[in-house]
Task: structure prediction
Amino acid sequence: MAKKVTTLFIRDDAVNLLVMGGKRVEKWASLPLEPGLVSQGLILDQAQVAEKLKELFKLGKVGMGKVIAGISGHNSVYRIVALPELPEAVLPEAIKREARRVIPVPLDEVYLSYQSLPATKGETLVFLAAFPRNIADALYQTLHQAGLQPHILDLAPLALCRTVNEPRSIIVNARLDHLDIMVMAERVPQLIRRLSLPGEAESLSERLPTITEEIDRTIAFYNSSHQEKPLDSTVPMFVCGDLAQAPDSWQSLAGKSACPVSILPSPVESPEGFNPNEFMVNIGLALKELLPEKGEANFSLVNFNALPEVHLPKAIRLSNILVPIGLTIGIGLLLYMGFLVYNKTTYISVLRSELAPIESLIAQENEGIATLREQVQQMEPQIAALEATTGIFDTTFTSLGEVREEVDGDLSQIVSLLPGKADLTGVNHMGDTVTVSGISPGEYSIFKYARDLRAGDRFSMVIISSIKAIEEDEIITGFEFEFLLK
Result:
């Protein structure tokens, strides 16, 4: 019998419910949400949204129970971090320390989720996601008010990445107020961007130039740091959301990359009347438990449960069992003593027969305590060795962090000051010297770019190494330039 999975995704303007049996859609339902109930992924009126959820499940004829829930991804940060190969015991603390360095918000404002990725020997590669606590907590509380049990949580951009059966691709999801751009490489989301779009009054056609420009900017940024294997015309681009309704605009989105553009295909069987585009996040959520076995496809490798630890089912603590047992035994002994005082002749044999099993149990517990003490003694040298290893890694992390921060700062200013119509073709960072090359339609923007770099606080010297005109049929179409930055 096919495994059944129920998924739920709450957007700002609607809530979607999907039930799958294996790889086939069985039930689906959607309800619009009035403005003001949810804003940028944050549920503002939990009571009203909970009532909407009850209505939705009734409409879809779906029983209330366990669900896989999606969180919007607003104000979330995604990073791939490389660490030295570490023992499992110290990995969580190492990841938390690295997160403090690479996540641009205080960690007490976000929840962290991570997953180890395949890496070369001597290295630990980790995919890290940080998302706002207030958004996750409000979603969890609303689902509980509605009588639902969220046992798995995922972020919407990661769910969309999971629907693509390609090792390398670009995914573009455009909605009324935001744009998601995801770059997949080697089955891992290497770059995820969420951008706000112009106001609700603007049509999709009016937003297309902004969308196209942001796609070009994303591809250029990715290629500048992946020159050994850049995104080219062979990498497919998939669109979903509002863009799915405008096929005439698809090829224009490719811009300078000239890659093939098509609608994001559904990886599951759909019955007649079902529109996969409107439920693509739900499909990605369902695939968390329905993906094929390892090695059979090219779906995303990133698949962790983002449900915060504070919301996981509480484990039964051993003390909660032992304390009542101990109290029961103690009360029993007091009763025995009372009976002994009251009529010691009658109950002395009963007490002895009852005492024998207790003495046997105490002897067994003493043996267990002795064994635990031996294990503690054996573990103490290991703990000391781990503490020494932690000290070495702290020094290594500090050194690597300083170098990486310097390079990231240089690259950030080089990219952020680039004129809108210019493109970078290369950035080479060698020690305290950076060589920047690119193409611009005019000389003015090249000189302005140089002046802006000089005015910044990163480089003490900006030298224009070369400016070369690009001619086609004796007509100048642009200029190649190269800067030397100190």
